[in-house]
């Protein structure tokens, strides 16, 4: 993680968790969208 020490003093654990949750949600959304597109096209 390169841009990680942007907030060095303010609870890095919480920001990490939030970033990881955001990434997981984005990946899930992309997967669901791809699945729906596959279902519609096939």
What is the N-to-C succession of helices and strands?
H
What percent of the residues sit in helical stretches (DSSP H or I)?
over 70%
| Cα Rg | 16 Å
Point out poorly predicted stretches.
none
Supply the number of helical segments.
1
- Share of β-strand residues: under 5%
Shape: rod-shaped
Structural write-up:
The chain crosses the membrane at residues 21-40. Keywords: Membrane, Transmembrane, Transmembrane helix. With 42 residues, the chain is mainly α. The protein has a domain at 13-41. The chain has 1 helix and no strands. It is rod-shaped. It starts with 11 loop residues before the first helix and ends with a helix.
Put the structure in a nutshell.
The protein has 42 residues and is mostly helical.
Keywords:
mainly alpha, 1 helix, single chain, 42 residues, rod-shaped
Lay out the secondary structure.
Blueprint: H1 12-41
